[in-house]
Amino acid sequence: MDRKTYFSTVDLALTSVLCVLWIFLNWLLAPLSFALLGNPILHDFSVFFTLLLVVWVTGRFGTSLLAGIVGSIIVVFLPGSPPAIIMFCFAISAVVFDLLMSANHHKIRISIYSLAIAAVATILSAFVAGVLIGILSTSSGLEVALTFWGGWHVVGGIFALAIPLPVIMALEKANVRKIKGDRD
Question: Structure pTM?
Answer without folding.
Answer: 0.90
